[in-house]
Amino acid sequence: MDFDLSEDQRLLQDSLAKLLKDKYGFEQRKGYIKSETGWSREVWAAYAELGLLGMPFAEEDGGLGYGTVETMIVMEQMGRSLTLEPFVSTVVMGGGFLRHGATAEQRAAMVPQIAEGKLLLAFAHTEPQSRFDLNDVATTAKKDGAGWVIDGRKGVVVHGDTADQLIVTARISGGRRDRDGIGVFLVPATAQGVTRRGFGTSDGQRAADITFDNVKVGAEAELKGGLALAEQVADETIAALAAEAVGCMEAAKDLTVDYLKTRKQFGRPIGSFQSLQHRAAEMMVCLEQARSMAMLAAMMAGETDAAERRRQMRAVKIEVGRNARFVGQQTVQMHGGIAMTMEYAGGHYLKRLTVIENMFGDMDHHLAALSEEGGVFLAA
Amino acid sequence: MELRFTEEERAFRQEVRDWIDANLPADTRERMASGRTPTKAMQVDWQKRLYEKGWAVPHWPVEWGGQPWSAIKRFILSEEIQSTPAPSPLGFNCNMLGPVLIAFGTEEQKKFFLPKLASLDLWFCQGFSEPGAGSDLASLKTRAVREGDHYVVNGQKTWTTLAQHADWIFLLVRTDPGAAKQQEGISFLLVDMKTPGITVRPIITIDGAHEVNEVFFDDVKVPVANLVGTENRGWDCAKFLLSNERTGQARVGASKERIRRLKLIAKEAPGGARPVMEDPRFRSRLTDVEVQLKALEMTTLRVLADENRALSQRKPNPASSVLKIRGTELQQAISELYVMAAGPYGLAAPNDPEADGRNEPDVAADWQTLAQATYFNWRKQSIYGGSTEIQKNIMAKAFLGL
């Protein structure tokens, strides 16, 4: 058992930390939000140069062959800086779909482009009625000669507004909530019949509402794996988001503790008051518990037993969510009014943590499911 | 980063499991499984078996009966003992006094006491807290005055766990009331409980159990040879003792066992229309505790991996402070789940003729009558060994610089 990073992993962490220190001050971030895409093409190019965008892909496909620990390291740094770029959408989710569900030809065509920063992906799964259920799919895919015709509507497609290719779940057969009969399709965002309406999310990022009206794609557009593929990628994404949340929580805790030391009221630093000291200590407990779960997630993201992997990821999502909520809320509470303002970073950690909490299932969703599945520790 | 147990570690776990199965007496196993604490005889018998196997004090230096094991291997042994459940080696002997003697004791003290601590030939209890010195331990007043080759001890200790079983007590006493700082006038003594002038009076806790005691010292003569370390530097021993074996405090193995048993019980426990376990509200509470326990297990492993390093490479790890706080919170949360599972039959107190002179019928199952008693008793966990509030004071100072 060894929780240390390797030399290479440390190097990755340091070089990304340095890049973000240069490019991702809070004021710079405000500029990126105001730009046309809502994030920075320049930073994206810098990621490509660092090799981050080809990270999870096999070397023979044009990637670096990195694993889930490297994803954790990168996401934690991005969480610290509240980055806005479509890294999760393109590299974690898009990358997951391509690695597990695409043909060698598709990977050969797309991976080098992703690695160079020229191709953006987004995962379109949420529907108006589906809430967090990946199997609740009303969007349809009907056979059309050799290819498919896709009809339906997907909402809150994170970074769907700037994506070049959309990865879409659609029902090939069965009832709306059946686990069988779901296909996963690669659809060019510019295909005839795709209409995208971009909007801002509550954490300052971007998403799109997308309708598919008689959209024709070829036979090769269907990735192999169906719902199981989508669930595998969702689990990998939960692991990445857990690490991002840990980065957010750590930065928020540091910011808060600094503030407690400098802000004076009643003639003394507010950090000298025991009620705030204990709350800060509790934040630290929360951070460490979340960090433990992000590590568990990195370990379990590659687990081949899907049921086991899903149970562990549910535990990760619940525990990270619980602790993130406490740290996010207390960051605002202990700062007082200043963290209520858009001007100051503090409140933005709460915003990002809240978005993460509500992606791929909230605490109640996973708690109910995990209870049904027998809990965390199954009888031997 | 590699978070899985190695092949060798998994094989060791199986070896431990098999050995416990073959060696744990049936009556001890039964008593422990019902959620009771072991009797003195059970504790002594079991620890002697562990001692003979070389497993009572694996964390001690090899020359004093320890094993050249990794922290993880030691963790596996203690987790298996907890999850059987079997009695853990007596903490006062093995985790508290033993390491203090190894670090601060004279050769004579080590030679005389260490083997007896490991084998439980001598049962030690801990004389730290006093009526006026709880969280503020350094304010203790029990006085020891040197007269020739003896100290004469006068004062009172309290919350002395299992003093009724103890042969000896390790004691913090004030030897220099005039010291500039109160921490600087304290000494660490070993005292035979049979010495004239010692009186033990039981304290019955809210669960009805006799676990803790008051211990009174009235002109008790203690040979100077029983001083551990330097006179007036006993606080160093106390601090060292309190910082030891951080990972033990989380008791993840014991909590996992309690959860496993609760799941079996709740499957059968009547819950009106359906067994308790089929009530979605109960089940989701249980799962929620399991999730937190999983996180604590991971945090424990992180601290362990840290303890595996050479001392010189260790940094104070904030994760270790999490263990006492969350570990005790979760043990308490599990005890609440037992109360909920027991429902109305949990109202029945355990039948204890020794305590109340009545011998009345047991109307409920063991686990039902123990549910509330255990719940009441375990409120102590967030109080002893540095209360949750003290832990947070320490964290704020040591890690947050507040």
UniProtKB/TrEMBL annotation, chain A:
Domain of life per record: Bacteria
Gene3D superfamilies in the cross-refs: Acyl-CoA dehydrogenase/oxidase, N-terminal domain (1.10.540.10), Butyryl-CoA Dehydrogenase, subunit A, domain 2 (2.40.110.10), Butyryl-CoA Dehydrogenase, subunit A, domain 3 (1.20.140.10)
UniProt domain Acyl-CoA dehydrogenase/oxidase C-terminal: residue ranges: 226-367
Positions of the Acyl-CoA dehydrogenase/oxidase N-terminal domain: 6-118
Keyword annotations of the record: FAD, Flavoprotein, Oxidoreductase
Domain Acyl-CoA oxidase/dehydrogenase middle residues, every copy: 122-215
Cofactors required: FAD
SUPFAM superfamilies associated with the record: Acyl-CoA dehydrogenase C-terminal domain-like (SSF47203), Acyl-CoA dehydrogenase NM domain-like (SSF56645)
Molecular-function annotations in GO: acyl-CoA dehydrogenase activity; flavin adenine dinucleotide binding
Keyword Repressor in annotation: no
Keyword Flavoprotein in annotation: yes
Family affiliation: Belongs to the acyl-CoA dehydrogenase family.
Descriptive protein name: Pimeloyl-CoA dehydrogenase small subunit
TrEMBL record, chain B:
InterPro entries, per the entry: Acyl-CoA_Oxase/DH_mid-dom (IPR006091), Acyl-CoA_Oxase/DH_mid-dom_sf (IPR046373), AcylCo_DH-like_C (IPR036250), AcylCo_DH/oxidase_C (IPR009075), AcylCoA_DH/ox_N (IPR013786), AcylCoA_DH/ox_N_sf (IPR037069), AcylCoA_DH/oxidase_NM_dom_sf (IPR009100), Mycobact_Acyl-CoA_DH (IPR052161)
The keyword ATP-binding is assigned to this record: no
Cofactor(s), by name: FAD
UniProt keyword annotation of Magnesium present: no
Domain of life: Bacteria
SUPFAM superfamilies linked to this entry: Acyl-CoA dehydrogenase C-terminal domain-like (SSF47203), Acyl-CoA dehydrogenase NM domain-like (SSF56645)
Domain Acyl-CoA dehydrogenase/oxidase C-terminal: start-end pairs: 232-399
Gene Ontology terms: cellular component: plasma membrane
Keyword tags: FAD, Flavoprotein, Oxidoreductase
Domain Acyl-CoA dehydrogenase/oxidase N-terminal: 6-119
A Pfam family per the record: Acyl-CoA_dh_1
Domain Acyl-CoA oxidase/dehydrogenase middle: 125-220
GO function terms (MF aspect): flavin adenine dinucleotide binding; oxidoreductase activity, acting on the CH-CH group of donors
Family: Belongs to the acyl-CoA dehydrogenase family.
PANTHER family: ACYL-COA DEHYDROGENASE, ACYL-COA DEHYDROGENASE FADE29
Protein name per the record: Pimeloyl-CoA dehydrogenase large subunit
Source organism (scientific name): Neoroseomonas oryzicola
Upper lineage: Bacteria, Pseudomonadati, Pseudomonadota, Alphaproteobacteria, Acetobacterales
